[in-house]
Amino acid sequence: MALLPILSFPDARLRTIAKPVEKVTDEIRQLAADMLETMYEAPGIGLAATQVDRHIQLIVMDLSEEKDQPMVFINPKITPLTEETQPYEEGCLSVPQIYDKVNRTSRVKIEAINLNDEAFEIEADGLLAVCIQHEMDHLNGKLFVDYLSPLKRQRAREKVEKVVRQREKVAVKR
Ligand SMILES: [Zn+2]
To answer: What is the pTM of this model?
Structure first.
C-alpha cells in the first residue's frame, strides 16, 4: 500500500480524458487499494484516478460514517433517471479548502465494473448521485470549480495555490 500524490487545481494534467480499463489486473487492484488509502488519509469521500495522475476510468469512494464501505467503479457510465436537479455543497481533494454549491441530477443509474471484473448496476440518489457525477467529471477532465463564476474560480485558484505552498513549506520542515 502506498500514499499517492494528489494533483491540485490548476494543474493541466487534471484536464486529461481518462481511457477505459481494458482488463482488471492485479496492477489495477493495487492502484485501487492505494487510491483508497490516499483518499482515507486525505481525508476525502471520493477519488478519481485522474487526480493521482493515472488516466484510466477508475473511481474509488466511501460515503459511510465508519469509513468501512469502500466502493470501486471501473469504466463507469451514468444515465440520468430524472430531470430534477439538487444543489449540494461540494469540495474536492484537488481543490483543497474550497466549497461551493453545484447543481446536479438528483437520481442516476450507474453501470460499472468491479475489481472482480464483474459488471454491476445501481440506482443512486442523494450523496452517492452527487459524488459519482463529481468523480465522472474528473475522468472527463472537468472540475467542480468549472461550474462556478470566473471570479469565484479565480479566487479558488489563488487560495489553492496558497494552500499548496503552505503544505510544501511544512513538508520541507519535516
Ligand atoms: Zn474532486
So the answer is: 0.96
pLDDT tens, residue by residue, 57-74: 999 999 999 999 999 999
Q: Is 134 annotated as a binding residue?
A: yes
Q: What is the pLDDT of residues 116-156, one digit of tens each?
A: 999 999 999 999 999 999 999 999 999 999 999 999 999 99
CATH class of the region 10-170: alpha beta
Neighbours of ion ligand 1 (CB under 5 A): 92
Contacts of 35 (CB under 8 A, 6+ apart): 4, 47, 49, 52, 58, 60
> Ligand 1: distance of its center to the CA of 9 in Å?
10
What is the CA angle 54-58-64, rounded to 5?
120
